[in-house]
Structure prediction request, 227 residues.
Amino acid sequence: QVQLVQSGAEVKKPGASVKVSCKASGYTFTSYYMLWVRQAPGQGLEYMGLINPSGGGTSLAQQFQGRVTMTRDTSTSTVYMDLSSLRSDDTAVYFCGRGGGSGMDVWGQGTTVTVSS
Amino acid sequence: QSALTQPRSVSGSPGQSVTISCTGTSSDVGGYKYVSWYQQYPGKAPKLMIYDVSERPSGVPDRFSGSKSGNTASLTISGLQTEDEADYYCCSYAGSYSWLFGGGTKLTVL
Prediction:
């Protein structure tokens, strides 16, 4: 079945970086964009950006430009989201989701990132 | 870009209908047919309920419907059931490979 499996929870100190992975299975990896969305505790969903697994091109929301890098490994059908210079307000659940214009139809289970000194 | 505007909460009784609005601008909701809606239970990943303004993915009950007028999109849930109690988020394409989410609406089934 189509599924996205994300890496486990992370605890990081302010200023550090975190890399979250999202492994796809059950479909042709290069045929769909992968989007990243985060949700701070008790807050709503926030779009971060997307990667085109086919060519590796990315597009980032303005507020994340310069701090987020998205990459992919087609040999393992995995996309990665790297967030640097972590701050306490980056504490959130990070989701990957398959799709694009017509909605995100498959979601990962979420990865909790906690930033604390 | 500011988040799309949704009511913080709505409520209804079992069997009734509720509508959740999602207001944006001509640069997002009003400018594209790419509005989607998500249902989210606490501690869970969102689930796609409506895409392309009014299309339902396979498996989503036809009690859920979507529409759009100008810069405002709407999600209507008819025949409310207790399991519909959740948070709902709208999302719109905003051009240049960017998307915007609404702030979310908590649906309470009384």
User: Anything to note?
Assistant: The longest strand of chain A covers residues 92-100.
